[in-house]
Design brief:
22 helices, single chain, BirA Bifunctional Protein, domain 2, alpha+beta
Length: about 575
């Protein structure tokens, strides 16, 4: 059950015309009252002799009785209460009880004193009602509406239990402002997938990812095509900003601007500055690390560094304090935003959805202790500057590697939120993890398929040798791993590690001990990416199998010259 208090208004009649009218898309069906301050209140929906004007005059009468100078400037209070799509359809009597409980919780009505405001509850659809009240009590006093939004939310949680409805998670005041119904209808008319507010929030978050200065941040916003207005103090200091989509216009054909803080609590300019100020203040240096600056550039290298940073973060957040963990969680959102922006088409949609969902999980009441998240923010910056990745080759394979490591980071984030009773954030992190799982399957299919084929063509002695390595290093998981389809890819990876000069048993023992493996959907897949990252092996081996096959054929010919046929049909087994 979702109660939402709308902006206060000045015209009771205008709101009644909307509620009793056909709606903007003819979606209003059979509008009628289900409850009101007076059981005998007239209902224009069911009594044709009653007009909307008459109902408006009754609602506004206590306001008219107040001296004009003392009347509230905006006296119309509006609350919508909507059920989830999977909820059962409530009867009019049940919706009436919901309305009475909501106005009492908000402070609109006071049944015990019989001195509340006048209100009506209108139902014009199966899944929701609208409550309209005028803000003047019958005794002339103003209603106490302090924290009315929090009180109706608490009442909604109780009603969900009593009515057997889907139980939603309680918020903590850190969520982004939801799009209004007007914004949603406008997006539908314009054929947008998301509202202008949501598109702006996504674009601004991508501009923040890994940014190190105001200049870079605003340059990225401009490059994304947004209209920008900067707000300055009388001293000339920059104190805020607003952004707009060029094609999002109001009725006067002016762009609709949104302040950063109205997009999300952590997108105000002061909160954005915290992301890079901590490094300069604590260390006297900027975010960009000179050592990292000399590292190989390009999408594949950036994804390798992102995978390493994500995996390090997984190990840290399970052992550190909440303030440091909150910083890592916020920085993980930047990495997701950067990865979604730069990934190939076949993974971009799911990565974008993962970043969009995780936005809610990136904030909580725990104030982040910035500075510890430097590696993750650097990874986000590297992804942006590494440029767009191809969907194949080393770019595609390292994308799968990075997604795999991020999946574990986001899952660890969900556990941290759940442990701290951050219900909405934990749910958002789990939703993001599901999108990451889908993105991983798309990204990993080709590179893991190539490794699988190479593993299938390893000689039996070599496969037995690698199986013995697994049994030695992971005796409790060995049989499970050897039965998985991904075992052949792991065998090929162990062979590559041995050819690169590593001890397969030691490498496998160390990487497996970094974190538990029992919760992995495919233990062999997880070990493949851990091993290839730790041993710095190529993530993509698509072109290696033909080379290996030719080398194997040449060795066979050299060892068995007498068995080779002559002529155009000669071949080796």
């Amino acid at each position: 059950m979702i109660p939402r208090i709308q902006k206060r208004g000045q015209r009771t009649i205008g709101l009644l015309y909307y509620l009793y009218g056909p709606g903007k898309h003819e979606e209003h069906i059979d509008p009628h009252l289900v409850a009101s301050w007076d059981r005998n209140a007239p209902d224009p929906g069911r009594d044709r002799s009653v007009t909307l004007k008459q109902l408006q005059q009754l609602l506004d009468q206590p306001v008219e009785n107040i001296d004009r100078a003392l009347r509230p400037k905006k006296h119309v209070w509006h609350l919508s209460v909507r059920n989830s799509a999977e909820d059962r359809i409530l009867t009019d009597e049940e919706w009436g009880e919901v309305a009475r409980r909501m106005v009492t919780a908000a402070g609109i009505d006071d049944p015990e004193q019989d001195a509340g405001c006048r209100w009506v509850a209108v139902r014009h659809a199966a899944d929701h009602i609208h409550i309209v009240a005028t803000l003047a009590r019958e005794d002339g006093y103003k209603p106490d509406l302090n924290h009315d939004a929090a009180r109706v939310q608490t009442q909604a949680r109780s009603l969900e239990v009593e009515l057997g409805l889907r139980r939603l998670n309680k918020g903590d005041g850190t969520a982004s402002q939801r799009p209004t119904s007007a914004e949603r209808h406008k997006a539908q008319r314009q054929g947008r997938e998301r509202t202008a507010r949501e598109e702006l929030r996504e674009t601004v978050r991508r501009a923040v990812a890994g940014a190190t200065s105001e200049e870079e941040f605003f340059d990225r916003l401009a490059a994304a095509g947004l209209l920008i207005r900067k707000r300055r103090a009388p001293s000339g200091d920059l104190i805020g900003y607003t952004v707009a989509l060029p094609d999002d216009r109001n009725k006067d054909d002016d762009p609709v601007f949104y302040p950063g803080a109205r997009l999300a609590p952590d997108l105000s300019l002061p909160r954005i500055r915290e992301r890079w100020d901590a490094y300069i203040q604590d260390h006297g240096i900027a975010l960009v690390d000179p050592l990292v600056r000399t590292a190989p550039n390009g999408p594949a290298a950036a994804r390798r560094r992102a995978a390493s940073a994500a995996w390090h973060a997984v190990l840290v957040i399970e052992q550190t304090n909440d303030a440091v963990t909150a910083a890592y969680v916020a920085a993980a959102g930047e990495v997701l935003d950067a990865l979604a922006k730069t990934s190939a088409a076949h993974t971009r949609h799911e990565l974008r959805n993962a970043a969009f969902a995780f936005e809610r999980a990136s904030r909580s009441q725990v104030r982040a202790e910035r500075g510890h998240d430097r590696a993750l923010r650097q990874a986000a910056r590297d992804l942006i500057h590494g440029g767009p990745a191809l969907g194949r080759g080393e770019d595609g394979a390292t994308t799968a590697m990075a997604i795999d490591m991020l999946f574990f980071l986001i899952t660890a984030t969900a556990h941290w939120h759940a442990k701290n009773n951050h219900a909405q954030q934990a749910a958002a992190a789990r939703q993001a993890a599901e999108h990451l799982r889908a993105a991983y399957q798309a990204a990993a299919a080709q590179p893991l398929g190539a490794l699988y084929q190479r593993g299938r063509h390893l000689g039996r002695p070599l496969l037995r040798q690698q199986a013995a390595v697994v049994r030695e290093a992971l005796p409790e998981l060995a049989e499970q791993i050897l039965a998985e389809p991904g075992w052949y890819a792991l065998a090929a990876t162990l062979t590559d590690a041995e050819n690169a000069g590593h001890s397969p048993a030691m490498l496998l023992t160390v990487t497996a001990a970094e974190r538990e493996l029992e919760s992995a959907e495919s233990v062999s897949d997880v070990l493949v990416w851990r091993l290839r990252r730790a041993a710095d092996l190529p993530a993509d081996t698509t072109g290696l199998w033909p080379q290996e096959a030719r080398a194997k054929r040449s060795r066979w010919r050299a060892q068995h010259p007498a068995q080779q046929r002559t002529g155009p049909r000669s071949h080796s087994p």
